[in-house]
Input
Amino acid sequence: MSQHYQAPAPRRRQQLFRPDEPLHGCGLITSLDSLRSHLQTAIEIEHSTIPTYLTTLYTINPITNAFAYQTIQSVVMEEMLHMTLAANIMNAIGGHPAVNTNDFIPEYPTYLPHSDDAFLVPLQKFCKDTVDVFLKIEKPAHKFVPPEFNNYKTIGQFYKAVKYGLRYWDHVTPGGIFTGDKSLQVTCEQYYGGGGKLTAVYSLSDAVLAINEIVGQGEGMDGTIEDPDQVFFGEDVEYAHYYKFNEIRHERRYRPEDTANCPPTGRRVHVDWDAAINMHPNPKMKDYPVGSPLYNKTLDFNQSYMRLLTCIHDAFNGQPDLLMKAVPLMYDLKYKALDLLNLPLGNGEMAGPSFEYVAI
Amino acid sequence: MTTSRNYTDLFLPISAWLTGFDTTELQATGMTATYYATITTKNTASCIDDFFAQAELVLQEGGGDEDKTNSLIASQLFPTSCYNNLAQNIITMWYTGEWAPDVNAAPSLAEAHNISPNAYVQGLMWTAASTHPPGAKQPGYGSWADPPIGPPVDAPLTSISNAR
Output
């Protein structure tokens, strides 16, 4: 493989990735089933970040904290894209994405699924600690870290392993592994407004593109973080989540001259750390007496959440058009979360969305 | 002149009886403090004192019984001669986000006005009709082709007695 870099994508997202790796490291995955189960993990990882980003998003005012709000919102929409991309890869290799099972939703605070359990991901209000966790979630991988399915340090490491696995099993399987039912793919016709272009996956190269989109949006492509000469910031460049969150944390934009391993040095942005709704962290239904108004409101929220997950599950499993029907459910969920955040607990804190599995 | 005490503890329960939405639903709009401030600035302190004194009696005498409380509200709080039309105005306020014209004011001052931009968005009339305020709380492209999400229209009314 040559060592040149792929050109940036047309929408000017900066994606500098190294060409495909040779077929070493593929022994991490012992079977196609194991590959599929790791793609299920990928879907779970992508999903696990969504409740935490959404919760924090809803605790801030979109007008008075516009920069932080718009930044977190843009990230969470990309996570929804990533979840759908992972499901497309899963369907392309004949797997069955499972989104509505009782173990699909993590119990917050949670470690990232199959990670090295280095840090917990909470549901909590907007504050510096929360943004620090977001930075850990999106932390870029070092260029030379090995691919890792389990106990990974960064999500990039995990996807590197997935990429190796896909390439290896496609190579050694007669006829390849991309033999899934093409009608199961969610295409850009069913997916709108959600953080980038959705790619249908019909081949290994589609799958690699999809993974590069996921990792590129999340942490930036490997290599850029430790390359101090790499210029890749600017007003018209949409850069990776880690750097977006770092702008909030430092209350500054990046300048085109900034380097990836240094904090942003551009113009200051207004971030009002104190203006968040004082939500009780990691709320749970069991915090409230069964049948109490707060219990019922939280239950109602979780039922809406389960209706949404069920709709997405069905969209990923043969009815891709249903994804359009999921959008009103997403809005409904948002308004229910905002309702909860208006309910005082009596101790100075407010209730909030708990994102728990309930039977519907 | 200020009211003889803060009536926020009574404002929500009496609002619940007047609107048919339970106190949690009312609080969830995030408008409670704004609306309480509105009624206390739009009415004299003595009117507020008298209204809540009567409202407290109504709630005590009604004892949670729906028919009894409703009939007490009708006879004690609703006559337009009482309390500057406050009971009716509270209902209009929660449902529409508007402060209704003052029945006793000179015509030029009798304009209804929106209490705040958020009051319009949080109006209970949208919830009651299972719809959304035009221009806000957008429900998603194409959602108009499907039945509304959520409880049937009469659900807040039927659940009223459980929530109080």
